[in-house]
Design brief:
Order of helices and strands: EEHEEEHEEEHEEEEEEHHHH
Radius of gyration: 31 Å
Distance between the termini: 102 Å
Structural class: alpha+beta
Number of helices: 7
Shape: globular
Largest sheet: 5 strands, mixed
Number of domains: 2
Length: 298
Amino acid sequence: MRTTWSGGRLVQRGGANRSAQLRKLEESAADASAPVDQVTALQRTAGNRAVVRLLVHGEGPGGLVVQRQPKLPKVDPKAEDARILKAMKANFTYAFWSLPEAKGVRPGSSGDATFIVNGVAVRILPDRYLTEPEYVAAGGSFKDGNRDSAAETSWNYDGVDWDPKSVQATAMAGTGQYMIDDYIEPVAKLRIQTTYQKKRGGASLKAARGVRSGYGKGLLLQDHEASHVKDAIDYIRSNGPRLPDGRGSESNAFNASVKAYLQAARDLGGSISTYSRAKTDCPGTRNAAFCAPIVKKK
């Protein structure tokens, strides 16, 4: 069987049946009014059933060539894992990849990583190294009254993924109530990011991380901020929020649970701030100036 170019289309000589792939190629190339730069198709040959790539360049006989697919270079899994780990250590203050909930999680194309902790989707973004004006433009600030922080770890409520239409219920005769049968679990979302302040003439993000911490846990600034991220994970692991199982409950009770859950999700950032201040900024030794005075036991 021979394949040639005729009148702006591919024609097979010596055979009545053409493959579906070749017919599709003909249809793509049927417009003879415009030059064809490149047309691709897959054709399974009758002889050895090997799949080859057909490339048609230009117009006219002789334009049909067969090109074998190049072999992809082999990737050493261990070397690739080491490369990814090195990049994560360079980009993140907190080693989230050591968490049991984040086992095997790797940053996506945008650089952030998301994993589920006790029903909450935790999204950790790469560290930032910004001046105060840059941080203000991004929606934050290193200043809090008379205090000027060298770094800040923020946690922000990012909404709840849930479709109320997923709730299935059965009417309870004579009560005006519904019994909740099933629903898709809602997932609260939290965004965490650490930002270091770039001073005039500042060296680098790495250098900023290595500055001594002025108070609380962690001798270095990175250790202190990592403790804040750990606090956020610990709080969620213990407190969620999660919607209590409402299957089998009456609709009024279920609606009340949903309302309380959504409020807890909205308050998550503030709740973590209170928890982490006590754990990392005011742990009882090297307390920050803004901590409550320590009352000594008599």
